[in-house]
Write a structure and sequence with these properties.
Oligomer: single chain
CATH topology of the largest domain: Rossmann fold
CATH architecture of the largest domain: 3-Layer(aba) Sandwich
Shape: globular
Structural class: alpha/beta
Strand order of the largest sheet: 2-1-3-4-5-6
Largest sheet: 6 strands, parallel
Number of helices: 13
Helix content: 40-55%
Radius of gyration: 20 Å
Order of helices and strands: HHEHEHEHEHEHEHHHHHH
Distance between the termini: 34 Å
Number of domains: 3
């Protein structure tokens, strides 16, 4: 399969093909590229569930045009149907909107090694999403085909991805500017701190030592101008980072 795909890509990218087929060649080439990406990661199924059904239909339609027919796309009408589908499709990629982070769906997604792309509102709080290790992508309901293509490529490369916005809010507060000073790894660590985890438990989870965690926490405090975890909580309650602000810069790999 892979050798055939590579041969097709080489032939389709030749100058002769460009001259004969023009723009249609470009669209087909993009589809072949996506097929190559998905052959490595989305090998089972894509499950879609969004409580706003009109947007679920839109995302499903766009994915069906982008993905090869060999990839099963399952539109789940209810959350109970979603739970059954996750249990029956280990390793699937899930596009989820308005699902509780503490739901049975999210628990099963972690248990069955699924990858979650979160369908977010721009004002959704970002830190609770960041603390969920199964969430590898954040997109909006306005996502276009190009955004979905980028998302698929990121999942293939096993890196986190946030859909970039066309413009940024020029009236960002000083707290938001300070939050933007944190690296993606520091933001992830902040999310774990706000879950109430102690340094020794975070160290075990991230595969490092408690002293390394303490050093990183001290650096976070310094950047945000806070002295302790209480001040950190107060800082983020007064100006919680949102998916919109997080999309200024894509996520890097988690620790």
């Amino acid at each position: 399969m892979c050798s055939i795909l590579l041969l097709a890509l080489q032939l389709w990218s030749s100058p002769i093909a460009l001259h004969l087929f023009g723009e249609r060649r470009t669209a087909a080439f993009a589809r072949l590229h996506i097929l190559g990406c998905l052959s490595e990661v989305l090998v089972v199924a894509v499950l879609i569930f969004d409580r706003q059904s009109i947007y679920q239909a839109s995302i499903s339609s766009r994915l069906s045009r982008l993905l090869p027919e060999s990839i099963q796309i399952v539109d789940c009408a209810t959350e109970s149907e979603l739970v059954r589908s996750v249990a029956n499709n280990p390793g699937a990629t899930l596009f989820l909107g308005q699902v509780s982070l503490r739901s049975e769906t999210m628990r099963l997604a972690g248990k069955h090694s699924c990858t979650v792309v979160w369908i977010a509102e721009r004002k959704d709080e970002y830190l609770p999403l960041l603390a969920q290790t199964v969430i590898r992508g954040i997109m909006y309901r306005t996502a276009k085909a190009a955004d979905l293509t980028e998302c698929i490529s990121a999942m293939r490369e096993k890196r986190s991805w946030i859909q970039l916005l066309d413009s940024q809010d020029s009236s960002a507060s000083s707290r938001q500017e300070m939050w933007n000073l944190l690296t993606p790894k520091e933001r992830h660590l902040t999310a774990l701190l706000l879950e109430g985890m102690q340094s020794k438990h975070i160290a075990v989870r991230l595969g490092t030592t408690p002293q390394v965690i303490k050093n990183r926490v001290a650096l976070i405090y310094d950047k945000l101008g806070v002295r302790n975890r209480y001040d950190l909580l107060k800082f983020l309650m007064e100006s919680p980072p949102t998916c919109e602000s997080a999309s200024i810069e894509p996520l890097g790999a988690k620790m």
